[in-house]
Amino acid sequence: MSKRTDIKKILIIGSGPIIIGQAAEFDYAGTQACLALKEEGYEVVLCNSNPATIMTDTIIADKVYMEPLTLEYVAKIIRHERPDAIIPGIGGQTGLNLAMQLEKKGILKECNVKLLGTSSASIERAEDREMFKELCESIGEPVIPSEITYSLEEAKEAANRIGYPVVLRPAFTLGGTGGGFAYNDEELMEIGVNAFKLSPVHQVLIEKSVKGYKEIEFEVMRDSNDHAITICGMENIDPVGVHTGDSCVVAPIMTLSKEDEKMLNDSAIKLIKELKIEGGCNVQFALNPHSSEYYLIEVNPRVSRSSALASKASGYPIARVTAKIAVGMALEDIQIANTNAAFEPKLDYVIAKLPRFPFDKFASATNKLGTQMKATGEIMGIGSNLEEALLKGIRSLEIGANHMYLSKFDNMSVEELLEYITEFRSDNIFAIAELIYHGVSIEKIHEVTMITPFFLEAFKNIIDMEEQLRVRKDVEILTAAKKMGFCDKYIARLWKCNELDVYNMRKENNLFPVFKMVDTCHTGAYIPYFYSSYTGENTSRLTDKKKIIVLGAGPIRIGQGVEFDYSTVHAVMTIKNAGYEAIIINNNPETVSTDYTTADKLYFEPLTPEDVMNIIHFEKPEGVIASLGGQTAINLASKLQERGIKILGTTLENIDRAEDRDQFEKLLKDFFGFVPETIIVSEPRYFKSFKQVFNKETFAGQAKKMMYAFFQSKTANGFIRDVRFTSDTFIKY
After folding, report:
1. Contact residues for 471 (Cβ-Cβ < 8 A; gap 6+)
2. Phi, psi angle pair for 286, to nearest 5°
3. Is the confidence at residue 712, as pLDDT, over 60?
């Protein structure tokens, strides 16, 4: 089936600002979609409001409208641009909801705009809780007992009929927003107020809780010829009860029998076909850990955070293929590497996705997890075994941990730790490791957490290796630890020596990792996407070109978002245009920088001195750019320079002069002959007197003039800086 020729111009709606539940994954999806459509010769118009994204760069779409993502503004753009079509499933829940509003309000019909890909009827059947339930029942797929409600009173009556505990799931919301578990009427009423408010259709599903079941998800793809494939099966380490965006997730599926895995896979394919979804789709299941009983939890008829994870886990570009299916192409028509998109990826490695939470910024907030997503971003570790993938993932989180250990739990008793893990929490993995260290059985921990014993055994394997390292200090045990993913720094801690001592021992014994290719189509194509491993053979090819490494920014978190992905991607483009081989190191599966087509080579690795140095040792670049990957990359600069690596761009000395307060103060003193002072207003009444002199409109301007006069009296340079009022009692300039 060939692409459509009756359309020329296509509108893509972005996802707007980065929020919890909607992060860089939609920049990645939108960028892929725009480039894929342009590749097929279509004119692409993009509407988005986020200036930090690569998607909104003028080289991605033919036209970019930086406008609010509201019905009013998007309708204006449609009436002005007169696109032939719109693709609804690329911009997350924001884009999907807007497309549905445009359809229902008649704007698409008025302007003769076609809705490409999945139809509005199919989207509604997947998103509307009542319609989805009816669909599943009509095709014999089991759904959790539930009732649709439109008011608090209806919700309360439904919960009492179903029986507590129940889950509240608002319709058409993102990341489980507004939902939660209720164990009685009081909790239901409390959660319900917000749930009905946040659902755009004021509809909330009251669902029987299956907390503790295994949570399994499949990323599936279908074209308009009804050809459907499975791209990636994923298994949550946490059982049902935690939003999948907040769960630790592994791929491939590891703990199901072949029969149960096929049963769920067949169900996912059956569902995407029945819904007639065209493109990528995520299907989530709850599976009874003691039988083959399962329930469908939900379907996302659009690209999602799970889609980005599945794309990077499998090397299959889901958003790119989705965009091409939307314009009528069949899976067999779409090229990926040296094959077509109809193949089903097969993973010969393990990935572990770990969420990045904001609790380091909000220390007083509860770190208990539930059905509403709290993670700001995520990382992915790739390894030859589960233990290696998990430990790489922990190092990548940048939370002050380089192993399955947090000092936070040092002084907690076994009883306190068991009490702690009775709730789903953001750092339970570390508390569980501490319990294993104290000799608590896997059976007991499983009883408390409902985490599958297979995963707990993997945690125990890591703790057991620690015990061996404490009593042995030889090459054999070092090799075994490195194969399991242990870092030099933690081994040095166990051996009570310096990290450099461990490195030197590796160097003396030529113990370095190989770099293995992420290749899931197995056609012999060379895909420049690599991960390190201490097992197997090296598949990363060295070239004679001069190389530059660009350090990425790691996970999305508060204070470090998609803007640094924008910087690193543009750096790579510039390096390639200058004739160098551009290499990216990053570990965030949501980003454009971790698309293997962005750089000449992608290394999906933790951003730590050891992991980066392993790549440098192999690639031998001209230098490393550390100034574009945010604080993550900047923090690595000194460690790399100490190891003799050339830092390109802003030098380490100048980075330090800007970052270090004492050095910056010295710079000002050397340059201006004085150190700018801080005017301290010791009493709030004095600050109020300023307000009496200057009204609200002129206060800042008048204060700036005062500071300017002060500077002129201090230096002939007439230097002026902005004035900031940091509190009622301090004025800084």
Report:
1. none
2. -110, 125
3. no
